[in-house]
Design brief:
Elements: E1 2-6, H1 16-29, H2 37-41, H3 48-55, H4 64-80, H5 92-100, E2 105-110, H6 115-125, E3 133-135, H7 147-156, E4 163-167, H8 170-179, E5 182-186, H9 193-199, E6 203-205, H10 211-219, H11 224-230
Parallel strand pairs: 1-2, 1-4, 2-3, 4-5, 5-6
Length: 231
């Protein structure tokens, strides 16, 4: 089996507005000025406490737990109010459906989100049965630590040479390299192409429609036609 692991924010879903809202709430909750948009989005992909720690000055590090708690509370409130709807990027659903339909591919998620955030995303987009393994900030160290990928491989029985990580940040690419697996960077997320290349992304794609072809080359996936012939 091949294991294809996706990051969430900035890769599968466009969540920049809801993330920035949470970051702003976190800063304002402790009386600090929120960062500008670019800085606020630069930490997307990291676990929440790690992300806030990167955004604040060292002398404010003690405020991070309160900031992270305010962010979480704001997210829960927005979901209950029906305001937290992060759209899938164009082409994402078609690619997920095509890969999920294969008998030689398992899908996974590795994200800095909490598990309840992933469950909300699955419910919004009807992805409840799509992923064989889901790794979150609740049960693994923050990216770029390789723990999420190593746990995903252990849960599914996939080998490193048959596993690939898809992500939009250097945190994803660095995590993949640390875990000894291949990676594909996406250009529509939160870190620029040149940073993804510098981190060692095996390939960079500019649209979801390119992903199946890239995976076929990287993992030697059989074509859909060949798979049907074998069946």
């Amino acid at each position: 089996m091949y294991l294809v692991i996706f990051d969430c924010d900035g890769t599968l879903v466009d969540s920049q507005d809801t993330i920035l809202h949470g970051v702003t709430v976190g800063f304002e909750a402790v009386g600090l000025t929120p960062p500008d948009r670019r800085t606020g989005l630069s930490i997307v992909g990291l676990s929440l406490d790690v992300a806030f720690r990167r955004l604040v000055a060292p002398e404010h590090a003690h405020l991070v737990p309160a900031m992270a708690d305010a962010y979480r509370q704001a997210k829960v409130a927005r979901r209950l109010a029906g305001l937290d709807h992060d759209p899938l990027y164009p082409g994402a659903r078609a690619v997920l459906d095509a890969l999920h339909a294969r008998d030689d591919v398992l899908l996974g998620i590795a994200t800095g989100k909490a598990l309840r955030g992933v469950r909300h995303l699955q419910e919004m987009h009807g992805l409840e049965r799509m992923f064989a393994t889901i790794q979150t900030a609740d049960s693994a160290p923050s990216k770029p630590h390789p723990g999420m990928i190593l746990q995903a491989m252990a849960e599914t029985g996939a080998q490193a040479d048959r596993t690939v990580m898809i992500g939009d940040t250097t945190f994803d690419i660095d995590m993949a390299r640390a875990a000894g697996v291949s990676s594909v960077g996406v250009s529509w997320g939160y870190h620029p192409r040149e940073q993804l290349v510098a981190s060692g992304a095996g390939r960079i794609i500019d649209a979801f429609g390119e992903l199946e072809g890239v995976l076929a080359e990287m993992l030697d996936l059989r074509s859909a036609a060949a798979q049907m012939d074998r069946v």
